[in-house]
Structure formats: structure tokens, C-alpha cells
């Protein structure tokens, strides 16, 4: 135990976490130069392409330092707010954290929010000034920021570069010297905290855990504390580049277990594994059942593909327990699923995986948050509304509540004005404003989660010319004056386009949505009125003029290859079109609300 070190790496996105992790793996010989592909830890194609870590992973390194052998467990954390609960559990599995800050960028919002999580768990922080090789690096200034933030000595900050390898030996030394060895009682009943799980098509579900007390043995009967389910530990071991089976994994160590678990939702991040024969009487604290935050309908483009879509979603759920879905039907789109996601990135990932891994072409409707509605006749009874088109009759409703978040923006002082204006426009309430350095300021405010689901992030980037970073966490539900805005195409209401909006925004939004739909829906043989309505009252209207001529007419007699190209283009465009009543509607139109600015 005294030669084990458990640590994670926390950083704002793009500050070089994955690259530095690769250097550590290389330097410790965990991965050979030949095996080295960039970012060995990001093993999903999507992760590699987008350069983000979606799921957290763990890997064990061996390192000889001053003649002693050490085991270093690196627990990688996902870098996106959608997965902040997973981040918190990964952090809870460690004694120390490498805090990476890009020397050319300085401290950003996720640097701070992850740092706070690490400090909450009493982690030893090793500050690293990364990307020192960049000509734009500002070591003195950024070191000052770090010193100010964590109150360390400037000499504690390690200058490094994941690119050139600068500082890597010093980092390994600091991991061993500064981070304390795990504590825990090897003779106590088993308590292991699950911080991640993955689905392997050959092995089933593999759960990753950190052992707090006791040990876990191959063949032993075990129990998951929160789900109450029992299993046999068919295989246990540690995580190298591959699974490395062992007879036993002991106190303080990080390992995996394969135990005939069928579905991902049996394994809950934060749950405690204990022994069935000699169980612990208390779970490791901090467990939460994560709930989806964002909901949207997913429909097959071709209505005949519904069963295939169900099959694909079930497969996806096998390895992503945070995805939830249930069948729903829409007058406009037919049969599909209402899906719950952890956030917007999670939703995009699912949509992309459906298309890439299952070859499904789907229509996604405007995402919304989950609302609580209360009826006049029973104002204490909470009803959950995950689909705006299912909102009860406003006349019978007592009130409606929506989820709020606490948001944190870090920006340059010259953009404070614009950022504040945006926050207020997004129904935000300022809580606090702190200067981190002379020209960097941290602004904290509360606002409805629904505004993030809309276009907050893109707007923030544009008003700050990219010089703002952003993070948030949920703080519960509050009453809001929300109303349902309906959209009618060719006089028919399209349920998939309904949205719940704040009363003060409804007219303006109605107008903008109509304009956007006019732009997105192609002209057809007849005139199409587009209307926005609140109840029976139309608040905005646009008209798509009828198409005069056949689009291919101008090609007749002309260049035949040009005509074919045009037809092919039309065919490709069709892939993502849905017939709604008489009107052909492209996928983008269903997301029009998100693209208003
Ligand atoms: P992550 O999002 O924190 O995991 O960051 P990555 O490791 O994916 O790095 C983000 C980008 O910065 C990539 O394009 C890397 O090639 C680049 N990068 C990472 N470390 C360094 C470094 O030390 N120096 C330079 N010049 N570029 C780096
Ligand atoms: Mg990464």
C-alpha cells in the first residue's frame, strides 16, 4: 500500500491532459513507442476525432524511483460538464491531482471547477504549467495566477510540455514525493467504490473501482450496495494497456471486475462493492443516482425503421447507462423515443453513434429540460413533464417549475459588460464577481438550465470573442412563468416543434422561429404559411412562397452530368427530410429554435 499512488489529471479542455497522460505512459514504459498512437486513453473513435475524453478510464503504471518500485494509478476524468458526477467520483478515488494549466491560455472555468472538486476531497494538488514550448507561453503571469488560486509556492509549479517531454520526470517524482499513499484497513470488510464501467462486446460489463478497505478476490461472492444485486467475481485484476487478471486486488489499489453483469444500468458510478459473506455496514459516501438533464425525441427518418431504432438504442444503452428512453409518438413524426441525456454533448454523442455504429438516420427534436407542473386541484402533487407537447392545459395548472443552475464564467475584464448583458437576456441573476488577476474576472450567476440548452454557449463565445470559459452545476427547481409556444405549418400544428418559453420572450421567439423556418424549409409546389401561436392566438406569421418551376427544368437539353448531380444532391438532401402533413421538413428545421442567432 505504501508504494501505491492514485492520481487524476484535471484541466480545462485542450490544455493538454491527454497528451501529457500519453507522455507518462511512455516514460514509465507502460506503452511502447511502437504502440503509441496519439492519446492512447481516448479509445472511442469519437473521442479521438473530437479530441475530448467522454468516458473516464484508468491505467496502472509501474515506476522505479530511487530503487523502489511504485504502482501509479492514473484515473482519467471526462472533461465536460455533462459528466461532472463521473468526474467527482473519479476524484474521490484519488489522493492527488495533477492540475494542468496551458501556459499560453492561463486559468479557465473548468480549471477552477475541477480544482474545487479536488480540494473538496482533500487531494494533493500538483500544479503543472503545460505547453511551455509554445512561443506564446507566459510562464510568469500564469504561474502568478496558479499561486494566487491554490496558495502554493511558485517553486511548486512544474514547467512542462506534453509535446517535448519537458518536466515529465519531475512530474513523476512529484507524484511519488508529494501525493500520500492510500490509507485503509486491509483486514476490514471490502469497500470498493465504482468510478466507471465499460461495455466490452466479448466480456460484458466491466466495472472499475478503487478499493477503500479490504480486498476483492477472484471467485468471491460480492454485492453492490445501492442496487442490492449479487454477483460472483469471475475475474478481477488491474488495468494496464489491457486487462491484467490477478487473484486478488488489495486495499488502496484500482482494479476491474468482470462478473456476469448484463446491463450497464446495474453498475452505478459511486456505488460500493462489498463482500456477500462479510459485508460492510455502510456505503461509501457521495453516491448519487444520476438523472438525465436534457430530453429530446429521436425518430427514424423512415417510419419503417422504428424497430431497428429500438434495437440500436437498446444496444447503446448496454454500454451507456446514463442514456434513458421510452417510446413516444408524435402526430407529426409518428413513432419514436423520448430520450433523456446528461447534457447537450451527451445528446450529440448518442445521435452520432446511432448514425455511425448502427447506420440509423434519425430526426432529433428540439431538446428541452424536465419541468415540474402542479395542478390547481392538487397543488402539492408534482407532475414531471419531459415533453413540452404534453404540458397540461394552462388554465388548469397552478404553477410550473424549471431546473436552475449556478453558472461560472471566466473572462477578460474588457468583456464583462457583454457577458453580463447576455446573462441577463438569458434570465440570469448575478451572484458574484471576483477579479482573479487584474484582467481576468470570474462571474457567478444563477439561471435556468433551459437557457444553456438553447444557444447560451455559442453566444458566450461570440460576445467574448472566444475569451470566456464556462462551467455550471444544477441547484434545483424554481417556479417560472413559462408558456407553450406552438408552431403551425400549413395550418397544422407540429407537436415536435412546440417549446416551453418564458412569457416575456414568447413573441420575440415566435417571430424568430417563423423566420428561421422560412429559411430552412425548402419551397414546395404550394404556398406554406408558418405560424407561431400561444394557445389559439397566433403571434407571428411568415409565408414560404410556392415553387414556380421544376428545379431540373433548366437543365433539360443541357449538360446531362449536371442534371444527374442535381438529382443526386436532391436525393442526399432527402435522407433527412420528413413529410409533415403535406410539407417536406428537413432535420435542421426541427432544431430551428437552437439556431436563431
Ligand atoms: P485535453 O483536451 O486536455 O486532453 O488536451 P489534448 O492533450 O487533447 O491537447 C489539446 C491540443 O493541444 C492538441 O492539439 C495537442 O496536440 C496540443 N498540445 C498538448 N500538449 C501540448 C504541449 O505541451 N505543447 C504544444 N505546443 N501543444 C500541446
Ligand atoms: Mg483529452
Automatic annotation (TrEMBL):
Catalytic activity: GTP + H2O = GDP + phosphate + H(+)
Membrane topology per record: Peripheral membrane protein
Localization terms from the record: Cell membrane
Domain of life: Bacteria
Residues annotated as domain Tr-type G: 2-183
Chain sites annotated for binding GTP: 14-19, 130-133
Gene Ontology terms describing biological process: positive regulation of translation
A cellular-component GO term for this protein: plasma membrane
Keywords per UniProt: Cell membrane, GTP-binding, Hydrolase, Membrane, Nucleotide-binding, Protein biosynthesis
InterPro entries: EF-4, EFG_III/V, EFG_V-like, EFTu-like_2, LepA_C_sf, LepA_CTD, LepA_IV, P-loop_NTPase
Molecular-function GO terms, alphabetical: GTP binding; GTPase activity; ribosome binding; translation elongation factor activity
EC annotation from Swiss-Prot or TrEMBL: 3.6.5.n1
Pfam families per UniProt: EFG_C (PF00679), GTP_EFTU (PF00009), GTP_EFTU_D2 (PF03144), LepA_C (PF06421)
Family as reported in the entry's similarity comment: Belongs to the TRAFAC class translation factor GTPase superfamily. Classic translation factor GTPase family. LepA subfamily. Belongs to the GTP-binding elongation factor family. LepA subfamily.
Biological role: Required for accurate and efficient protein synthesis under certain stress conditions. May act as a fidelity factor of the translation reaction, by catalyzing a one-codon backward translocation of tRNAs on improperly translocated ribosomes. Back-translocation proceeds from a post-translocation (POST) complex to a pre-translocation (PRE) complex, thus giving elongation factor G a second chance to translocate the tRNAs correctly. Binds to ribosomes in a GTP-dependent manner.
NCBIfam families xrefs: lepA (TIGR01393), small_GTP (TIGR00231)
Stated name of the protein: Elongation factor 4
Organism: Lishizhenia tianjinensis
Designated gene of the protein: lepA
Amino acid at each position: 500500500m505504501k508504494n501505491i499512488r492514485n492520481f487524476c489529471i484535471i484541466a480545462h479542455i485542450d490544455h493538454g491532459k491527454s497528451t501529457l497522460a500519453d507522455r507518462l505512459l511512455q516514460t514509465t514504459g507502460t506503452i511502447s513507442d511502437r504502440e503509441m498512437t496519439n492519446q492512447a486513453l481516448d479509445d472511442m473513435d469519437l473521442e479521438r476525432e473530437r479530441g475530448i475524453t467522454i468516458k473516464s478510464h484508468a491505467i496502472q503504471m509501474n515506476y522505479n524511483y530511487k530503487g523502489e518500485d511504485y504502482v501509479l494509478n492514473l484515473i482519467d476524468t471526462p472533461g465536460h460538464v455533462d459528466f461532472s458526477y463521473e468526474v467527482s467520483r473519479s476524484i474521490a478515488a484519488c489522493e492527488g491531482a495533477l492540475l494542468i494549466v496551458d501556459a499560453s491560455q492561463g486559468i479557465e472555468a473548468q480549471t477552477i471547477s475541477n480544482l474545487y472538486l479536488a480540494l473538496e476531497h482533500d487531494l494533493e494538488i500538483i500544479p503543472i504549467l503545460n505547453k511551455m514550448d509554445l512561443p506564446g507561453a507566459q510562464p510568469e503571469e500564469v504561474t502568478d495566477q496558479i499561486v494566487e488560486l491554490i496558495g502554493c509556492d511558485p517553486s511548486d509549479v512544474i514547467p512542462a510540455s506534453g509535446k517535448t517531454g519537458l518536466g515529465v520526470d519531475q512530474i513523476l517524482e512529484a507524484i511519488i514525493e508529494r501525493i500520500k499513499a492510500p490509507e485503509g484497513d486491509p483486514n476490514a470488510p471490502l469497500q470498493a467504490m465504482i468510478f466507471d464501467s465499460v461495455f466490452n462486446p466479448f466480456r460484458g460489463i466491466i466495472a472499475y473501482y478503487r478499493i477503500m478497505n479490504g480486498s476483492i478476490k477472484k471467485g468471491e461472492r460480492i454485492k453492490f450496495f445501492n442496487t442490492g444485486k449479487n454477483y460472483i467475481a469471475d475475474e478481477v485484476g488491474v488495468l494496464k494497456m489491457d486487462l491484467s487478471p490477478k487473484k486478488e486486488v488489495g486495499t488502496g489499489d484500482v482494479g476491474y471486475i468482470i462478473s456476469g453483469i448484463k446491463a450497464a444500468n446495474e453498475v452505478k458510478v459511486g456505488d460500493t462493492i462489498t463482500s456477500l459473506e462479510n459485508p460492510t455496514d455502510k456505503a461509501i459516501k457521495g453516491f448519487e443516482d444520476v438523472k438525465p438533464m436534457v430530453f429530446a425525441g429521436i425518430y427514424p427518418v423512415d417510419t419503417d425503421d422504428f424497430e431497428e431504432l429500438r434495437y440500436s438504442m437498446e444496444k447503446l444503452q448496454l454500454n451507456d447507462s446514463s442514456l434513458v428512453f421510452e417510446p413516444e409518438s408524435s402526430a407529426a413524426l409518428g413513432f419514436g423515443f423520448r430520450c433523456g441525456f446528461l447534457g447537450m454533448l451527451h445528446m450529440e454523442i448518442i445521435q452520432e453513434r446511432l448514425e455511425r455504429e448502427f447506420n440509423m438516420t434519425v430526426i432529433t427534436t428540439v431538446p428541452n429540460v424536465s419541468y415540474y407542473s402542479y395542478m390547481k386541484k392538487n397543488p402539492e402533487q408534482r407532475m414531471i413533464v419531459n415533453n413540452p407537447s404534453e404540458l397540461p392545459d394552462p388554465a388548469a395548472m397552478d404553477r410550473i417549475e424549471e431546473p436552475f443552475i449556478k453558472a461560472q464564467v471566466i473572462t477578460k475584464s474588457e468583456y464583462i459588460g457583454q457577458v453580463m448583458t447576455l446573462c441577463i437576456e438569458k434570465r440570469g441573476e448575478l451572484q458574484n464577481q471576483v477579479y482573479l488577476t487584474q484582467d481576468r474576472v470570474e462571474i457567478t450567476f444563477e439561471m435556468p438550465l433551459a437557457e444553456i440548452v438553447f444557444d447560451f454557449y455559442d453566444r458566450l463565445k461570440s460576445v467574448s470573442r472566444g475569451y470566456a470559459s464556462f462551467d455550471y452545476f444544477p441547484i434545483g427547481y424554481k417556479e417560472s412563468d413559462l408558456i407553450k409556444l406552438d408552431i403551425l405549418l400549413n395550418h397544422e400544428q407540429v407537436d415536435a416543434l412546440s417549446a416551453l418559453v418564458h412569457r416575456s420572450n414568447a413573441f420575440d421567439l415566435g417571430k424568430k422561429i417563423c423566420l428561421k423556418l422560412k429559411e430552412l424549409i425548402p419551397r414546395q409546389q404550394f404556398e406554406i404559411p408558418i405560424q407561431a401561436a400561444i394557445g389559439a392566438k397566433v403571434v407571428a406569421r411568415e409565408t414560404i412562397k410556392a415553387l414556380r418551376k421544376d428545379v431540373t427544368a433548366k437543365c433539360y437539353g443541357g449538360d446531362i452530368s449536371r442534371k444527374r448531380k442535381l438529382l443526386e444532391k436532391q436525393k442526399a438532401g432527402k435522407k433527412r427530410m420528413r413529410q409533415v402533413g403535406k410539407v417536406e421538413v428537413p432535420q435542421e428545421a426541427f432544431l430551428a429554435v437552437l439556431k436563431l442567432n
